[in-house]
Each structure stands twice: as structure tokens, then as C-alpha cells.
Design goal:
Blueprint lengths: L9 E18 L5 E21 L3 E5 L11 H13 L4 E7 L10 H16 L5 H12 L3 H4 L4 E5 L4 E4 L2 E4 L1 E6 L6 H11 L8 H7 L16 H7 L4 H13 L4 E4 L5 E6 L2 H13 L4 E7 L1 H13 L34 E4 L1
Helix pairs in contact: 1-2, 1-3, 2-3, 5-7, 8-9
The protein binds adenosine-5'-triphosphate.
Length: about 350
């Protein structure tokens, strides 16, 4: 008889997001804001390893600013699933951070979604991405999106997520301004100047338009940007310079992501992105280059990870990669010809 197989560890990529557009419609009774946003996953990712153990939960992370207690969203995700499903088993979570912390790129939320997916599988709970949605909502407004991925519309608190048939494919540059901006403080500033609106049409126009490629993007904006720069006035000058370089370099879109502090440029082709990256580096900025990850590619990356027998190279990545060229870390659509900024139907 074969010996019982060892409990498997899973290595899951937790991708970053950018907001291709963000509108704030008003404050809600529950203290959150009514939003419309267009989420987009990009290939920049943390590595999350989940390993089952008999009992108890623990988290490790190689980044000094990330909590190792219940302040860690990934650990809270495991606790939430344990309680919800009445699971007695435990797990170890190891996170290798590459997504800048507090950068508006959703790193903590994506780690949490990866843990939900990984432990749902390893503990044999079997809720799947749809069944995990209510747990994800309780963890944070950005977590539900990471159970979906690709290009998606976020409504309500940003936690009602609709994957779009038209998926954006392009190249992004992410400029880490290296200074976290408090999301709560940015929203508090927005509140002081907010005129509640029933609706706003920019994102819906983008989603429903027949515009293709570059022409579709200039209507998009991030309505948190002004408040974020009021909150962190020392960033305004840098943001102006970065936007100038990205626009001159041919970016279709150049915006702050979420409430900051990362700034991104979206490009149709890799060569232009590379040119703008060189210009930004020459101006002294820290820049990551990453392709977009479509809904299809995101789903394939999940299913590959959940099928994989054993995590390799667990927690051994070097921190020097944090600000490197992200292309080295591979792309979920690897092997396919690099594509321009297209809107694909899925
Ligand atoms: P938010 O807009 O929700 O603040 P963000 O995308 O700007 O998110 P994150 O990198 O998710 O930024 O980190 C926000 C805060 O969450 C940080 O202060 C960090 O200490 C805390 N945090 C908790 N768990 C994690 C995690 N797994 N990874 C990164 N940060 C985490």
C-alpha cells in the first residue's frame, strides 16, 4: 500500500491591480463610498504559499511593513474561512512581497484572495470563487475583485464586481512614489468637497462604447487624485513630472492608482513602454514594467496553481527584485506573442 501523500503546499501568484478609472458618487450610510471603478490586474505579483498543518494559523512575510498578526489581511482571510466553514485544520502562510505596500495596487487584498482560494482548495471546503465572494467582501472592498481578475467593473463599494467581455491588453509602467498615502485620509478629504451624484457616465461610457484601442482611454480619470495630492502635497511635483514623461512617451492613460501612491502609465506597445521607462529611470524614478493580465490569463494562472502538486522555491526569493524589471517573473500568458493595447472580447 502506498503511504498517505503528504499535505501539499500551494504557491499562488497574488497579482496587483490598477484602477483604469475611478469615480466617487457619494458617501454611503455604512461609512464607505459609492464608487464606479474599472479594475485591471497586471503581472506584478506577490508569491503566496499556503501549507496546511494540523491546527493554528501563522503568517510570515519578507517585508518589514507588513504585519505578522491579525493585522495581516491574508491571515484574516484564513481565519474568516476557518470560521465560516467550521474547519478545525490550520495553515502556514508565507508571503514574498513584490507589490509596493500601501501603493494603491491592492497587494494586501490580493494576498487575502489568494489565501481564500488556496485554503478553500487545500482544506477541501469547495466554495470556489463565487462562494467565497461574501467572505471576500467582509475582508475589504478590493478583495472580491481579486477572486475575478482581468478587466472588471467595480460598483457599490467597488466590491460588486462584473468581469467585462472586453479585456484590455497592454503594457504598464508602475512608478512607486515610495511614500504610502492613507486611503482613509484621502476619502475624508473627498468628503469635504463631494457633491453627491446619482450617477456619472464616464466609466459606463467607456464600458459600453464601441471605441477600440487608444481612442477609448482619454475619457477615464481618477477622482481621488486631487484629494490624494492635497493629502501628500510633496508628491504633486513628482506626479506632474511623471505624467509629463508618460504622456510624451505615448501613454494612452497616465493616472494615480486607487488612492495612491503608485502612479501608472498604460501603453499600447512594449517598445514605447520601454522608452518611457528609460526616461523615468533617467529622471531618478523607481519603475516597474508589467503587462496586463486578462480574465482568461488570470483564470488559467489560478487553475495551474491549484493543480500544482507542490510549491517550489518557497520564500527564497530575494528582496532585490522588489523594484526590478517585472518581466523576469514571467507572465501568465507566457509564450504568446506580446500584444499591443487591444480590447479583446472574451
Ligand atoms: P488600501 O487601499 O486597502 O490601503 P493598498 O493597495 O494601498 O491598500 P496594501 O499594500 O494592501 O495597500 O497595504 C495597505 C496596508 O495594509 C498597509 O499598511 C499594510 O501594513 C497592511 N497590510 C495588511 N496585510 C497586508 C499584506 N498581506 N500585504 C500588504 N499590506 C498588508
Amino acid at each position: 500500500m502506498r503511504p498517505p501523500s503528504k499535505p501539499r503546499a500551494l504557491l499562488l501568484p497574488a497579482y496587483a491591480k490598477i484602477n483604469l478609472g475611478l469615480e466617487v458618487l457619494g458617501a454611503r450610510q455604512d461609512g464607505y463610498h459609492e464608487l464606479r471603478t474599472l479594475f485591471q490586474t497586471i503581472e506584478l505579483h506577490d508569491d503566496v504559499v499556503v501549507r496546511p498543518r494540523a491546527r493554528g494559523l501563522a503568517v510570515r512575510c519578507d517585508h518589514p511593513d507588513v504585519p505578522r498578526d491579525e493585522g495581516n489581511l491574508a491571515l484574516r482571510a484564513a481565519l474568516e474561512l476557518q470560521r465560516y466553514a467550521g474547519v478545525g485544520k490550520g495553515a502556514e502562510i508565507a508571503i514574498t512581497k513584490r507589490i509596493p505596500v500601501g501603493g494603491g495596487l491592492g497587494g494586501g487584498s490580493s494576498d487575502a484572495a489568494a489565501v481564500l482560494m488556496g485554503l478553500d482548495h487545500l482544506w477541501g471546503v469547495g466554495l470556489g470563487p463565487a462562494g467565497l465572494q461574501p467572505l471576500a467582501r467582509r475582508l475589504g472592498a478590493d478583495v472580491p475583485f481579486f477572486l475575478v481578475g482581468g478587466t472588471a467593473l467595480g460598483l457599490a463599494r467597488g466590491d460588486e464586481v462584473y468581469p467585462l467581455r472586453r479585456q484590455v491588453r497592454g503594457h504598464t509602467l508602475i512608478v512607486d512614489l515610495g511614500r504610502p498615502v492613507s486611503t482613509a485620509a484621502v476619502f475624508a478629504r473627498v468628503d469635504r468637497s463631494l457633491t453627491p451624484r446619482e450617477n456619472s457616465h464616464t466609466i459606463f461610457r467607456f464600458v459600453s462604447s464601441d471605441l477600440e484601442g487608444l481612442r477609448a482611454f482619454p475619457i477615464l480619470s481618477n477622482e481621488l487624485e486631487r484629494a490624494a495630492l492635497e493629502e501628500a502635497p510633496d508628491l504633486a511635483d513628482r506626479v506632474g513630472r511623471i505624467r509629463g514623461i508618460l504622456n510624451r512617451g505615448g501613454a494612452a492613460l497616465a493616472l494615480l492608482s486607487g488612492s495612491g501612491s503608485s502612479f501608472f502609465g498604460l501603453f499600447e506597445d512594449g517598445r514605447r513602454a520601454q522608452g518611457a521607462q528609460s526616461a523615468l529611470v533617467a529622471a531618478g524614478f523607481i519603475v516597474l514594467r508589467a503587462r496586463t493580465v486578462s480574465l482568461d490569463q488570470y483564470r488559467r494562472a489560478w487553475s495551474r496553481s491549484l493543480r500544482a502538486r507542490r510549491a517550489r522555491g518557497v520564500g527564497n526569493q530575494s528582496r532585490s527584485r522588489h523594484h526590478g524589471d517585472h518581466r523576469r517573473q514571467g507572465h501568465p500568458g507566457r509564450g504568446r506573442k506580446a500584444e499591443g493595447l487591444r480590447i479583446d472580447r472574451v
